[in-house]
Design a protein that fits this description.
It is built from 3 helices and 11 strands; from the N terminus they run ββββαββββββααβ. With 170 residues, the chain is an alpha+beta fold. Strands 1, 4, 5, 6 and 9 form a 5-stranded mixed beta sheet that branches. The chain has a 4-stranded antiparallel beta sheet with strand order 3-2-10-11, with no helix packed on it. The two termini are 30 Å apart.
Length: 170
């Protein structure tokens, strides 16, 4: 599903723990880290896509999280030329995203990266709130910055020193 401007609708997931740290996931077979995210399917509302993606990518159900909020509008990023692809004759130039802030209410053990047939991640770690801005791929950085700034008040985030966390396997 691509809109008239060439953007694919998508949801982004900012999942925090009780300490306010965020779940940062490692793309399978790569050294690329990102927040869980995924496309919104035809006829699906953003919140429905959120819960489907949450289950597919992290093995979590709606009962395992609390929704703290969502960005007020769509945040967009353009893909670099090398990533442009055609879908039914239309070019997808990037993604437009609704970002959800969630708090994990279940035990960490509920996180399962192999919950679906084709896992997207093979590791994860808890990181300080602002660290993803240093590690995300360049073309997503502006959207991550906008999403984290808008969602920060929902998590009572303080801009303290950043510290690295050790990755965990799925």
């Amino acid at each position: 599903m691509i809109d008239a401007d060439g953007f694919r609708p998508n949801v982004g997931i900012v999942l925090c723990n009780a300490d306010g740290q965020l779940l940062w996931a490692k793309r399978i077979g790569q050294q690329a880290w990102q927040f869980p995210q995924g496309g919104i399917q035809r006829g699906e509302r953003p919140e429905q896509a959120l819960f489907r993606e949450l289950n597919e990518e992290l093995g979590l159900s709606p009962e395992d999280v609390q929704i703290l909020g969502v960005t007020s509008g769509w945040l967009r990023y353009r893909l670099p030329q090398r990533y442009l692809r055609r879908s039914r004759g239309r070019v997808c130039v990037g993604q437009k995203q609704k970002w959800f802030a969630l708090r994990l209410t279940a035990a960490e053990a509920a996180i399962k990266l192999d919950a679906c047939d084709k896992p997207e991640f093979d590791g994860w770690r808890w990181v300080d709130y602002w660290l993803p801005l240093d590690e995300v791929v360049d073309f997503k950085r502006e959207v991550y910055n906008a999403a984290l700034r808008e969602l920060a008040p929902l998590l009572s985030v303080m801009q303290g020193p950043k510290r690295r966390a050790e990755p965990r396997d799925g």
